[in-house]
Amino acid sequence: MEIHQSAVILLLVLAASFTAYGQPDDIKPCYQKLLNQHLGSCVNEQDCDKEISKRDITASGTENGCKEVNTFIQANKNNIKVVCGKGGTPQGNNLFKSNQPFPVVICKLQSGQRHSNCQYRGKKSTRYIVLGCDREWPVHYEEAMINGLMAG
């Protein structure tokens, strides 16, 4: 019996530790939205129209629903997440600037009458990124920086 009780206690301890280090439920929707709108490890300059339409990226409150600018960060989830910890520098207001620049594709609106007919032109760049973080999880893409200066 003692072996059985020890196994149960070990499982409870392991379960508690996984929960303690997991992502809080209230952060998941914002984190997933950030990944959908801004994670683009394989997105290139020619993909802007297709990716923005496929991911249903819109700008609420605008007349045509077309987002003026959307930036895709060419990285994986882990590279982005570390910006909210040891890979970033606090900027105040829960914002963190990446310690290293990231390759990005910046998609700027060229024309569009209504969402899904928005047309974008992409440009590749390397920039420091600024993320809004909540409990060390990225939940908002704020800005990109070129040589330490804020950019759109």
Automatic annotation (TrEMBL):
A UniProt-annotated Pfam family: RnaseA
Domain Ribonuclease A-domain: 27-145
Superkingdom of the source species: Eukaryota
Entry keyword annotation includes Transferase: no
Coiled-coil ranges (or none): none
Subcellular location: Secreted
Keywords: Disulfide bond, Endonuclease, Hydrolase, Nuclease, Secreted, Signal
Protein name in the entry: Ribonuclease A-domain domain-containing protein
Keyword Disulfide bond: yes
Recorded family membership: Belongs to the pancreatic ribonuclease family.
Entry-linked SMART domains: RNAse_Pc
Signal sequence region: 1-22
